[in-house]
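not sure who needs this but someone in the group chat was asking about Adenine DNA glycosylase from Croceibacter atlanticus so here u go. i didnt clean anything up, its just raw.
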Amino acid sequence: MQKDLNFSKILINWYLKYKRDLPWRHTTDPYFIWLSEIMLQQTQVAQGLPYYLKFTETYPTVFHLAKASQEEVLKNWQGLGYYSRARNLHETAKYVANERDGKFPEDYKGLLRLKGVGDYTASAIASICYNEPVAVVDGNVYRVLSRYFGIETPINSTKGIKEFKAMAELLLDENQPALFNQAIMEFGARHCKPKNPFCDTCPFSDSCKALQDDNVLSLPVKLKKTTIKKRYLNYIVLLSDNENTQIKQRVGKGIWQGLYEFPCIETKKDISETEFLSLFKASDISNDINENYNVSLFNDASIVHKLSHQHLYTKFWIVRVSTLNDGIPTHQLKDYPVPVLIARFLEDFSF
């Protein structure tokens, strides 16, 4: 395959005409570009934009972000999902602020050493901030290239990752790497969409292999996902007469590390109230309750919360007691970073 300069020209012309006016496109400051790129990993612009605006207002420099507590950062990130991004964001901010005097590495290889920064993010920052000719490859780029060239190599295979990266590097306009990279991502996000792409008005309609072969919606090819694991969570919402409750912070390397949740009993299947009462009485949670208590189920049907590799079937059991020795006022729950699953319950229960 030879370098296709016409592809770059057509793409950039489209971008200059149709690009969205987004705040991070008005700067080449690596802090703001890094922040936007981390937030937009696995997140659409419409969802990520309010968080970007909130973070840049709350943490106008990397030093402000570094000084914040992880708990505060997680609280501000709440609802954006994939919380490891927030933890890595905070760790990198502390490293850049404290070890590098607030200065980000100025090339692709240096950026790649930062925690939470992979090939795509390093390429984006290096090209946009330092004009380094390195190509970005994200989901949008995979889709554009696989359709344009009619490539059926799975994008999440080792071969595919190498093949598409090499192809993107070959197509890259080395004189305008920032413009090219932003153009191809924007084109994939807004024009060559996963569903209902605008093929009728596509500037590449005369040369797109997938369109010629009537194969647009079959590309890109992706290997089947890992089997989805089902988990059954029974949250115990303790409520005292003086409106106290109990929450705890998740530790370890599992989901929602660093976030807070109610005490929980995990089971292998959906359980009845009788089964719950039996498990609750045998648990450590009930040891601190030396009195009668009343149990009710908040949601009759399990709330299904879908994560990338697991589906959580969740029930919230309300356990009312007279007093709680070790608890917090329910009105303080809003101050703690919690998973969106818990946040929605707090809103629905109207504490």
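also The chain is about 40% helix and 15% strand. if thats useful
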